[in-house]
Amino acid sequence: MIRSQKSQSFALLTLCLVFFPAVNGFTQDELNVNIAAVNTNYFPQIHLYVQVTDEDGEPIMGLAQENFDLLEDNQGAYFDVRPYLVEGTSFGLALDCSGSMGSYQDNVVEACTTFINNMRPLDNASIIFYESYNNTQVMQPMTNNQAALINAANQYYASGQTALWYGYYLALEQCQEELIPRVLIGFTDGQDNQSYSFTLESVALFARSLGCPIYTIGIGSVDPGPMIEVAELTHGQFIHTTADSLEFYYNQIQRAYQYMYEVAYISPNPLTNGGARTPEVLVDAIANTASDTVQYAAPWVLDFAPRITLTPGTLDTLMTEPQLNNTPLTVQAWVVDNDVLTLVRIKHRRIGETTWNHGAMANVSDSLYSFTFEDWYVQDPGIEFYLIAIDSYMHVINMPQYNPGLYPYQVHVLPNTSPWITHEANPSHPAGTPMFVSCEAMDTTNSIERVELFFRMTDEIFNVVVSMDNIAGNTWEGEIFGYMLEANEYMIYFIRAWDNYGAYVDNGPHLVQIVTAVEPPEGSAIPATFKMHQNFPNPFNAETTLLIDLVRETPITLSIYDLHGRLVNRLSSGELYAPGSHRVVWNGTNSAGQVVGAGIYFAELVADHTTEMRKMVLLH
Questions:
Q1: pLDDT in tens, 503-539
Q2: 565: how many CB neighbours lie within 10 A of its CB?
Q3: Could you report the per-residue pLDDT of 412-447, keeping only the tens digit for each?
Q4: What does pTM read for this prediction?
Q5: b/e for 388-422, b at 16 or more Cβ within 10 A?
Q6: Which of 26, 173, 298, 503 has a Cα-to-Cα distance from 383 of 20 to 30 A?
């Protein structure tokens, strides 16, 4: 039976080192579970990318959260599941161009071309040709531009020796500045004979540090030993086949990464002691149960990865008001890290385009980074972008955190103006009954193309996305099913509207108290019990709200402590509160008004001879 348990504990995320036996081809049971990648960079959430396949190696999609269970070190933990269908995977394609590959050229080009044509819009790939050391090169840097990739693949040739490990290393360098998951796929018909200082060991170490599995395909009389070893060391696989099967195995590897599940969970062990942790994902499907485990090491310190914060000028000016066209505009952000930052990058494109461009942000002072779009680039309808920061330990952080490729930041450029939304939110809704959310969505320069409703309960991680229907004129409506709304919980939602150019605007977030059918809205009646609810949002990066229910007039003491039990701030020191429901906001500062560092904090409420505590996570 699949077990499920909610917990409000947290743990740090660090790079995981995983070990998985390589096999000759894809050996499959009736149900197979493989934790393909781990995103360890966002304290305190851990994100696992899970492949679920049948005996033919075909991905099994359509599974719900009820089909999954998550344990860490045999302890139940709160977790959330969603299909990982919208964001992309970064593939490093290392192609053996040595002289012995001459009779396989057509097979290689056909396999690569099919692979590229099957890429999703947010998939990235790079192409490396390796032969003799001095001629091994990156033919196409990492991109989602399919035309550029096909052009590179069509230049394939056969000549020279085999600098295999050097070629793999170049492919890993292309992957290191990309978001997880990232994969290296390489093939050869022989063995390395000219990589000099680049070795199996150095390649495996680099790949492990990136969490990048290596899939090795051996053709013909290849020496399988090193190929099996590097696959085993990096959680990849070795496949021994013939050249005419290259296209099949390329497709099978690609599909396995295009049809995954993302399982996010909160670790039940918050200690930052460097200890090994073992998550296990269990899946119950097609009348079978299967599982997979992986290991990661808890960090020794808090705030181990880079942290990105947009400046007010970017967040409150550029992204809220349409900008003049043909006028330079500058995006700025503060980026801090406990280690050495090696790169802060902006990925950008004009709204409506498909190919992402890369730019390095300049460190203009202390932790401030800046990038200026030249006047010729600033055109109607606007620009969309997201930021990536990388440190010397190869932690890669992106902002916005969730779905940056699908939902990037936007700057709208005149004459295009933003859509706008009019919506009246209700503070409460009865449990178990459908909730219909309606709004007016308009645009003076374009038409509204679609409107979507994003919602989640405050203790959940992923939003549920509902397409809203245009029921009349400018009115749009979406339904949240009643079974999703449980009493005594809180739901947070926002509405997003896109125009026909792809420019969008948000309305929200809005907080809704889910009450029993006979209970009036929050604040209009005396609660039945004393309670401090979980803060929302959580995690948070600016401020968070604590909801407190009081049965009678009561003096309360509300304190914030850090992970080591030290007092950080006191939000209430025995003040008398009336009976009812109250909201208290903490803005992430200490008692001196200084912003505190990211990490785990505890809110302790003492009232009516009772003490309650909630764990909170501050991000920067």
A1: 999 999 999 999 875 444 444 467 777 888 888 888 8
A2: 7
A3: 999 999 899 999 999 999 888 899 999 999 998 889
A4: 0.77
A5: bbbbebbbbbbbebbbbbebbbbbbbbebbbbebe
A6: 173
